[in-house]
């Protein structure tokens, strides 16, 4: 079976996000004054083979812990879908 | 009303993604041989004030077109939720 994992990696609460602040300021300068906050993160779409959805989820969680996210400053969330 | 827009910006199909290839190769080296492809993208969580959800969606679409995504090589998707 083939699965697709959509992973979002964001900074943990309290970690300084200068990129997000820069984007918020740029949006204000473009007249989007209603924007209160911008938080930035990374997105990964991982296509992989696995026997079951549970196995795909377990492997993607391992990949996040080992490579895709920095556990010191980042958190992650993902969802896995079967590809037909 | 306050709303939160979760925006994912990815490369358009056919646009070369060297970062994704590098991550796929790194995952293979870490013994995640079942990974077939990795596509990378950017994630933005935008908190904003708006009268209605439709207005929040319209404004976020404008921000994507003007600043958050490069329409030449990138595509975007987003969902908006009310924050209570």
TrEMBL record, chains A, B:
Major localisation: cytoplasm
Keyword Oxidoreductase on entry: no
GO cellular component, one term: cytoplasm
Enzyme Commission code: 6.3.5.3
Pathway(s) this gene product operates in, as recorded in its UniProt entry: Purine metabolism; IMP biosynthesis via de novo pathway; 5-amino-1-(5-phospho-D-ribosyl)imidazole from N(2)-formyl-N(1)-(5-phospho-D-ribosyl)glycinamide: step 1/2
Biological process annotations from GO: 'de novo' IMP biosynthetic process
EC category name: ligase
Record localization: Cytoplasm
Gene3D superfamilies registered for this protein in UniProt: Phosphoribosylformylglycinamidine synthase subunit PurS (3.30.1280.10)
Domain of life of the native organism: Bacteria
Keyword Transmembrane applies: no
GO MF: ATP binding; phosphoribosylformylglycinamidine synthase activity
InterPro entries: PurS (IPR003850), PurS-like_sf (IPR036604)
Keywords: ATP-binding, Cytoplasm, Ligase, Nucleotide-binding, Purine biosynthesis
SUPFAM superfamilies: PurS-like
Pfam families: PurS
Family recorded in the similarity comment: Belongs to the PurS family.
PANTHER family for this protein: PHOSPHORIBOSYLFORMYLGLYCINAMIDINE SYNTHASE SUBUNIT PURS
Assembly notes: Part of the FGAM synthase complex composed of 1 PurL, 1 PurQ and 2 PurS subunits.
NCBIfam families: phosphoribosylformylglycinamidine synthase subunit PurS (TIGR00302), PRK05974.1 (NF004630)
Function: Part of the phosphoribosylformylglycinamidine synthase complex involved in the purines biosynthetic pathway. Catalyzes the ATP-dependent conversion of formylglycinamide ribonucleotide (FGAR) and glutamine to yield formylglycinamidine ribonucleotide (FGAM) and glutamate. The FGAM synthase complex is composed of three subunits. PurQ produces an ammonia molecule by converting glutamine to glutamate. PurL transfers the ammonia molecule to FGAR to form FGAM in an ATP-dependent manner.
Protein name (record): Phosphoribosylformylglycinamidine synthase subunit PurS
Species for this entry: Candidatus Caldatribacterium californiense
Encoding gene, per UniProt annotation: purS
């Amino acid at each position: 079976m083939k699965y697709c994992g959509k992973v979002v990696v964001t900074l943990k609460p309290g970690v300084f996000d200068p990129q997000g602040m820069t984007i918020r300021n740029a949006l204000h300068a473009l007249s989007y004054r209603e924007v209160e906050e911008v938080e930035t993160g990374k997105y990964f779409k991982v296509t992989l083979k696995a026997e079951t959805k549970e196995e795909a989820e377990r492997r993607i969680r391992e990949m996040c812990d080992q490579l895709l996210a920095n556990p010191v400053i980042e958190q992650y969330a993902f969802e896995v879908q079967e590809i037909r």
